[in-house]
Amino acid sequence: MQISRRRLLLGLGSTVGAVGASLLKPAWAGAVEAQACDGASPVPTTKPADTGPGKKFGTAGEVQFFPGNTIICHLPPTSATHTEVAIAWQQLQDLTGKTNITWLPPTSYHVTIFEGVVDAVRRPGNWPHGLPLDAPLEECHRYLAERLRQFDLGVTLPLRFVIDDTPRQKIRTAIPLKCIDDAEARKLSDLRNRLSLATGIRQANHDNYEFHSTGGYYVKQFSNCEASTYQKNFQAMLSKLKKKLPIIELGNPEFTQFSDMSHFERQFYLSSRS
User: Fold this and answer.
1) How many domains does the chain have?
2) What residues contact residue 21 under an 8 Å CB cut-off, 6+ apart?
3) Is the separation of the CB atoms in 244 and 252 below 8 Å?
4) Domain range for 179
5) Which end of the chain is less enclosed by CB atoms within 10 A, N or C?
6) pLDDT score, position 41
7) What is the longest distance spanned by two Cα atoms in the chain?
8) Does any domain span residue 122?
9) Backbone φ, ψ for residue 73 (5° rounding)
10) Are strands 159-163 and 248-250 parallel, antiparallel or unpaired?
11) Measuring CA to CA, which residue among 135, 116, 132 is closest to residue 124?
12) What CATH code is carried by the domain that includes residue 113?
């Protein structure tokens, strides 16, 4: 049977296009992406928690004014850790798109060591107990800065974490981390307890805080099937990243201020006094 020249060229074009597209996909994603979102084994989806008036993001996923302060370690921008994390998030973004998740800029990548305050959440525990709940945010910034400049970090650096790739049902847009061993966990727990005493802040999750590094925020609800596909891609990304980064090391924590979730402005590093 003869094949027309037009049909042959169309066939070759489709093949070349498919090969080209496959080269653009991250290697870890092939098997997962090949499973179309056909409703098989769907994951129950959840509604986004950080969108709406007075929250971190608007209903269209736009960054909103949400000021506060916090103590973090930025991922060192020239480090292998930052490079690999940025690549991983970009690959997941390429697979997921921007409709359901607002992705953060790589310059914002960090690990929170101790949660400070947000202006929108003023209640005992989330606000310094030495300040009235209606104190202006600028006064809170000054209050905490005075105490933290005198604070003795008192820990051996670096702070060492490993990626926790334990599968979970919840939609996650942050890389879960845990201390590398029991000694490191005790070190971080002691540091957080002393920070709590110095700042007068002790949030409800103080004793079971889960360290993480956020790459984006879930802003528009997935369908159950979309959630299933995302979860598989996210889990594959975590497993691949854990092999590339068996240990994540971070330096001096920083006291930072922020106006929204896209940028955390360093005020100063916490340091050891002795």
Assistant:
1) 1
2) none
3) no
4) 42-269
5) N
6) 62
7) 87
8) yes
9) -120, 115
10) antiparallel
11) 132
12) 3.90.1140.10
d(CA 43, CA 40): 9
The answer to whether position 257 is within a domain reads yes
Reduced to 3 states (helix: H, G, I; strand: E, B; else coil), residue 28 is helix
* pTM of this structure: 0.85
Q: Which amino acid, 84? A: E
**For the residues 243-271, what does the mean pLDDT come to?**
98
Measured in whole angstroms, how far is the alpha carbon of residue 187 from the centre of its chain?
22
Structure tokens at 157: 């650096």
- As a 3-state breakdown, the chain gives helix, strand, coil percent values, each rounded to 5, of 35, 20, 40
Closest-CA residue to 65 (of 223, 195, 230, 258)? 258
Determine the Cα–Cα distance for residues 133 and 120; give it in Å rounded to an integer: 11
Question: What is the residue-wise DSSP string for 92-151?
Answer: HHHHH-SSSEEEPPGGG-EEEEEEEEETTB-SBTTB-TTS-TT--HHHHHHHHHHHHHS-
Phi, psi at 65, each rounded to 5°: -60, 120
Which amino acid belongs to residue 87?
A: I
pLDDT value for 18: 38
